[in-house]
Amino acid sequence: MRQVDLTAEETSAIAGWSAESRRRAEEILSLYPEKRSAVMPLLYISMIENAYVTADGMRQVGVLTGLSPAQVQSVASFYTMYKREPVGKYLVGVCTSISCFLLGADDVLAAIEDESGVPDGETGSDGVLSVEHVECNGACGGAPVVLVNWEMIESVTPEKARELVKWLRDGQPEVANTEEMQQLFGGERSFDWGIKEPEGAILPVPAFGPYGSVGEDS
Ligand code: FES
Fold it and tell me: Which of 106, 133, 145 to mutate to test the pocket of ligand 1 (most atoms within 8 A of CB)?
């Protein structure tokens, strides 16, 4: 891995980030010959730092990558997993692409909206739940698929979706874990996932391992 020494401007831009995020940003930048190629993982770190992708976060990433704010925003606004406004403690996504649609995803989404009182694309006033429909998650054999903070539950029925909402709202678990939620609220799985995630997701959103997307030792 090549050494990256941040300039004074770059160091100053992310002075407010945690030491771990600053270390990770340097590590990510060191992986790319062109700084601009690091825009996506850096946006992800900015989302961790600010809870969502803020104007400040995009400016900071712009300084690190040499991109203009408009260029950074064009990336952040293209990918729906970059959240550009606050979301609830639990981001509940329902896949409504073709396989899930054919197996009742619309009914699952309607059940979640009804039970939570939160319409698709919105966040409840108490900040506990956000609800959204999402595109195919590549688990079509386990349709319909529901995600909680990107942790997947397969073959969910409307009835189980209601139970899931109650479980999240009333219990507010510290960790949303695929294995546990699949057992409680899921049905048949598409296949046994190769990688078990005993630790589950890290809350709040963004929820998957915040620093683990690059490198094995991070
Ligand atoms: S269509 Fe829902 S996971 Fe593929």
Answer: 145
